[in-house]
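Single-chain item
Fold in token form
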Amino acid sequence: MIRINLLGIPKQKKGKRQISVPVISGDGPSPMIAAVVVFALVAGGNYYYYWRINSQHEQIQADIAAADMETKRLGQVKAAFLEKQKQADVYKRRFDVIDQLKAQQKGPVTLLAMIGDTVNKTDAVWLNAMTDDGAVVAVDGVALSHVAVANLMTNLRNSGQFKSVELKQTQQDEVVKDLQAFVFTLVCEKQKV
């Protein structure tokens, strides 16, 4: 037969040990409820911390992606800048060459003008060619007499541009039959400046 105790107070049994279970009275909060509340607060705090760290992680990933895009854009800008810089250097070298040629143009132009004036002042002399090798100028021409060649040599020496004027060769021109003409070559050494 089974007995049911409806009073809720256990009956002491003889010979068996009795375990005393603390009876919770209605005086204060239940420790079980307190433990559940503490567990809920810790779990909520952990969730909030995880959520905050996760949102910071996502923000950092977004910042890294934006920085990568900016790096790529700046790399393209840098490549364009370097290309423009190369073009600018090429143009600068071209302008430097042009300026150098203009500066050097004065010397040959002055020399040619001086030789042209000297030949114009000398009668019966015509030039066929002139070669400027830096320190030496070679002049080829035709004259109607030896005296005209000598006058040209004197006028070139007196111009002040040449240290020495020497006759390399002279010979009578066989092509011209009606007149006596002489083909000559002069070598003129420039004054050192």
